[in-house]
Amino acid sequence: MSTEEKVASHYTHGSLETAILQTLLADGKDIDNLRIRDLAGVDEFHLGRHAATVELARDLDLAAGLRLADIGSGLGGPARHFADAYGCTVSGIDLTEEFVRVANSLTVRCGLADQVSFQQGSALALPFESGSFDRATLIHVGMNIEDKARLFAEIRRILKPGSRFGLYEIMQMREGMLPYPMPWAMEPETSFVCSPDVYRHLLEEAGFAVEQEQDRSAMAIRLVHEARARAAAGEARDQGFRTLMGPRAGERSSNVNMSVEGGLLAPIEMIAIAV
Ligand SMILES: C[S@@+](CC[C@H](N)C(=O)[O-])C[C@H]1O[C@@H](n2cnc3c(N)ncnc32)[C@H](O)[C@@H]1O
Question: What is the average pLDDT value for the chain, to the nearest integer?
Fold first, then answer.
């Protein structure tokens, strides 16, 4: 099996759409007329969840009519936010066929299918024409991709000069062994976490100038503390997110959260300009 096949298999659930719809129905949602906020907690697979997406979108200087490519789009929560809040036209691409299918279905249920669509494909061979996008985003995807030089070259290729590329990635902040399983990999074999220095260097090599960098650890840790307080107060656990995470969800969440709290890992946002 190639690395990409292993990664897609890692994220494949098998009956994710049914599980998500059951969670939404149990919460009393109208699943044929979903609002974006109904999906909060089930469609954003990254630290800091929706709050982090909102910050990234602000820093991307988005506007109506801009074409945005979301690379490794998952279930499409970030893509739908960029379209709904700013009027962008968003094309998502993701390796995991099931995620693409569920992302398109949820988008139809939210009434956003004329602005947002998803297709299956590899971030290392993007099925888009050169110079065809005004913005690109990469949210918690690089941890599964070893060849980041090729990844950034592909993203630079599809962007127009002067465009903004927003990354929000888990990066390694000091030497140390990562605990596994992690949300993105059960074992080190498909995990390729790098430092901010490596990201900056590879981005510059690919033709980007890094304009901004923000460590979002405090935001991610605050959300974890709030979730722990809710659990301690006897409120229901975050079932939607556990469904999305799959086997050993508690252990995987706790490994990444402890690594961020201990300063070994950090969710870092970078805004890079295509030069
Ligand atoms: C942790 S999830 C993040 C999903 C989404 N960006 C979000 O924040 O909700 C990582 C995603 O990256 C996708 N992915 C990993 N490697 C990829 C590759 N080489 N090409 C395209 N997608 C990839 C996975 O299929 C998965 O959907």
Answer: 95
* Nearest CA-CA partner of 63 in 83, 35, 77, 80: 83
Tokens of 241: 């997110």
- ∠ Cα 272 273 275 (to 5°): 135
Please write the tens of the pLDDT for every residue from 118-130. Answer: 999 999 999 999 9
Q: Whose CA is nearest to atom 7 of ligand 1?
A: 45
pLDDT class of 227 with cuts at 50, 70, 90: confident
On the CB side of 36, CA atoms within 13 Å amount to 15
Residue with the smallest CA separation from ligand 1 atom 14 is: 72
Q: Which two tokens mark 113?
A: 């299918």
Q: Tell me, using a 6 A CB cutoff, whether residue 256 lines ligand 1.
A: no
Number of domains present in the structure of the chain: 1
Full domain range(s) for residue 233: 3-274
Closest of 250, 240, 247 to residue 102, by C-alpha: 240
Q: Which of 114, 168, 113 is nearest to 136 (CA)?
A: 168
Cβ of 191 closer than 6 Å to ligand 1, yes or no, is no
Q: Report whether pLDDT(158) > 70.
A: yes
Residue type, 197: D
Cβ–ligand 1 contact at 53 (below 6 Å)? no
**Can you give the CATH number for the domain in which 10 is found?**
3.40.50.150
Q: Which residues of 170-188 are buried (b: 16+ CB within 10 A; e: fewer)?
A: bbbbeeeebeebbbbbbee
The predicted model scores a pTM of 0.96
Give the separation between CA 116 and CA 153, rounded to whole angstroms.
24
